[in-house]
Write a structure and sequence with these properties.
This protein has 16 helices and 9 strands. By secondary structure, it is an alpha/beta fold. The chain has a domain of 215 residues: Rossmann fold (3-Layer(aba) Sandwich). Strand 1 and strand 2 form a beta hairpin. The chain is elongated and about 120 Å long. About 13% of the residues have low confidence. Belongs to the GTP cyclohydrolase II family.
């Protein structure tokens, strides 16, 4: 890998050139079905494909570059904080609700800055006036103005300490497909809308928006993974097949941003236990409570009002049982568009709450066998030479793998039958032995009674 180092606001940043690495990856990717299956077997449990390397907290440096007030179409407003860091060249964001949460690095007095500089980068308190004089453009901060800023900061800090409730926090990774084009493959857009609605209702909260598209692999590789998902792989297997970690996201920068916003305890909105584990591993942020992000359509009465109940989707009913531990009685915010029923099916399929693949293969094969039997009665055909072939058409993709899977299942079934027969024989033998012992004991007792009666 080719690396280059450059300086960003006084911090050394390492930038990796992915061109050579990408070419090596392309060469080593499988090109045939056998290579494809073998690669998946070898790579899916590899340590490098499971956990990304975490950067220690002391090595991560961030700085808030600007803060701006954003009025929303829903009537409320938020503050957008933009951060730069020494780990990557991306601009990460913090969406902040409430005036009491502020950035420590933003409020610092920068060298040789004027009043206008501070106003332009958002380092002000209260609300801006509509008229600003031209004199502010060239004036440096006087001692009186510096003491005024210090007094404002001290006042704000004392107000923050009075707030005992930890704020709602959502650590959200960028998702163009879910947030912009409303993809049914994920619920990222819905989760972002839900988090914003809850924080706006509470009047306080932080969304740390990390530029980690596609679990950290980027939009290009994410779209390639979508094509693999259409072949039947879930998100994890698709990422691994592209020689990426199953989940390449890290939350060190998120931890640093929350520290910079002077938060010590948070009420975290997440379904991801790894997010809590990584966040608490740095030791500076304590997760006092976790709130699950339940899709709105799961708690929608439309799914339980009897509509289309004549033909329930087996995928939907199976998957709702699988994820019943996520259901909650609390109402889910109604911001944004709801997920249609067919899109929910796709969402559950991609999320991996489904499916025993062996059963699907067996069902497909049985269906084909029944079809062939019906056709054979009308047009008798000679028997196949191979007893191993259960009737899979020659034009099926991955036929060899399916046959191996069927043969493996057949052998497992035979071994299971043998184990059951052996266990049954042992059980009968043990029962017979106990019956014989019982008979001997009864006979001995009778003999003892007869001897005793004769003696009397």
């Amino acid at each position: 890998m080719v690396s280059k180092v450059f300086t960003l606001f006084g911090m050394n940043v390492v930038s990796n050139d992915p061109s050579i690495e990408e070419k090596d990856k392309e060469k080593s990717r499988p090109t045939t079905v056998k290579e494809y299956v073998e690669f998946l077997k070898n790579q899916v449990h590899a340590p490098s494909a499971v956990t990304p390397m975490l950067v220690p907290d002391e090595h991560i440096k961030i700085q808030c570059q600007v803060r701006a007030r954003i009025p929303t179409t829903q009537g409320g407003e938020m503050y957008l904080y933009l951060y730069k860091n020494n780990q990557d060249t991306k601009e990460h964001l913090a969406i902040v609700y409430g005036d009491d949460i502020r950035s420590k690095s933003l409020d610092k007095t920068w060298e040789n800055e004027t009043i206008m500089n501070r106003i332009v980068r958002g380092a002000y308190y209260g609300r801006l006036e509509e008229v600003v004089t031209d004199e502010c453009r060239s004036l440096a901060l006087t001692k009186d103005q510096e003491s005024y800023l210090e007094a404002q900061q001290a006042k704000a800090k004392s107000e923050w300490r009075m707030l005992s409730e930890p704020p709602l926090v959502r650590i959200h990774s960028e998702c163009f497909t879910g947030e912009t084009v409303h993809s049914a493959r994920c619920d990222c857009g819905e989760q972002l809308d839900s988090a914003m609605a809850q924080m706006q209702a509470a009047g306080r909260g932080v969304i740390v928006y990390l530029r980690q598209e596609g679990r950290g692999i980027g939009l290009l590789e994410k779209l390639k993974a979508y094509n693999l998902q259409d072949l039947g792989h879930d998100t994890v297997a698709a990422n691994v097949l592209l020689q990426h970690p199953a989940d390449g996201r890290t939350y060190g920068i998120a931890n640093a941003i929350l520290k910079d916003l002077q938060l010590k305890e948070v009420d975290l909105l997440t379904n991801n236990p790894d997010k809590i584990k990584q966040l608490e591993s740095y030791g500076s942020i304590k997760v006092v409570k976790r709130r699950p992000m339940v899709p709105r359509s799961w708690s929608s009465p439309a799914l339980n009002d009897g509509t289309n109940s004549a033909m329930p989707s087996p995928l939907l009913s199976h998957s709702r049982n699988e994820v019943s531990h996520l259901e909650t009685s609390s109402p889910v915010p109604s911001s944004g568009s709801s997920t249609p029923r067919n899109e929910l099916d796709k969402y559950l399929a991609v999320k991996g709450f489904i499916i025993n693949k062996h059963n699907i293969i067996k069902d497909k094969i049985k269906e084909h066998q029944r079809k062939e039997k019906r056709q054979g009665r009308k047009n008798p055909q000679p028997q196949r030479k191979s007893k191993k072939d259960p009737g899979i058409p020659n034009n099926w993709p991955f036929k060899e793998e399916l046959l191996n899977e069927v043969e493996k299942q057949r052998l497992e079934a035979e071994e299971e039958k043998k184990r059951k027969r052996a266990a049954s024989r042992k059980k009968k033998a043990a029962k017979k032995a106990t019956n014989e012992n019982t008979k001997e004991q009864i006979e001995e007792e009778k003999e003892d009674e007869e001897e005793h009666s004769e003696e009397e």
